[in-house]
Amino acid sequence: MADAKHTALTLMLAVSSAASAEQTPSNETAEITGNEKRIEIREATLSEDEETMGTIRVIGMADGILFKPSIKGLEPGMHGFHVHENASCDEDRSVEDYDAQPEPVAAGDAGSHLDPGFKENHGGPYGDGHLGDLPNLFVNEKGVAEHPVFAPRLRMRDLENRSLVIHANPDNYSDEPEPNGGSGPRVACGVILSTTGS
């Protein structure tokens, strides 16, 4: 009888251990699988006096990228936030987003939203449009952005030689009534030259 109880107890422990082992991978999405990069964010202006506004930590996860801002000096509210195609925050006089205005555009040399698949539509972070469409950044009443946003379609390799741009207005993730979600002028920008290292 003692042998039967011992055998039953051994089987129960084995099944319990197996069940625990099967549940472990469910935490996989919380683990960092890529690199982490800290991007300096500067004010987008037409002068050379661009103030540093803070940083955004870019963290590669198992199922996307987490952007963790620590930025001061923005207007309170929601702000459009995108990965742009070029690794530059310089001004430009001919930007597709702004119908090639003759006036210089702050951070215009960052180019358009990252769109390697040539979707040519603005679909938001969970849609099938520009790969560079990110969730809006929330800025509190003190002008501070510190709430992280998550981009499930992006991987660290997608960010090589790109830029991060913060816009003046929220993004409605549509091309109506205005192109690119009506997010408006570029107010802050940071260059990503490499996604290796910190």
TrEMBL record:
EC numbers on record: 1.15.1.1
Pfam families the UniProt entry points to: Sod_Cu
Domain Superoxide dismutase copper/zinc binding: 55-192
Enzyme class: oxidoreductase
Keywords: Copper, Metal-binding, Oxidoreductase, Signal, Zinc
Known catalytic reactions: 2 superoxide + 2 H(+) = H2O2 + O2
Annotated CDD domains: Cu-Zn_Superoxide_Dismutase
Keyword Metal-binding recorded: yes
Gene3D superfamilies, A to Z: Superoxide dismutase, copper/zinc binding domain
SUPFAM superfamilies: Cu,Zn superoxide dismutase-like
Cofactor note: Binds 1 zinc ion per subunit. Binds 1 copper ion per subunit.
Lineage: superkingdom: Bacteria
Cofactor section: Zn(2+); Cu cation
Keyword set includes Transcription: no
PANTHER family assigned to the protein according to its UniProt record, in alphabetical order: SUPEROXIDE DISMUTASE CU-ZN -RELATED (PTHR10003)
Family, per entry: Belongs to the Cu-Zn superoxide dismutase family.
Protein name: Superoxide dismutase [Cu-Zn]
Organism: Marinobacter nanhaiticus D15-8W
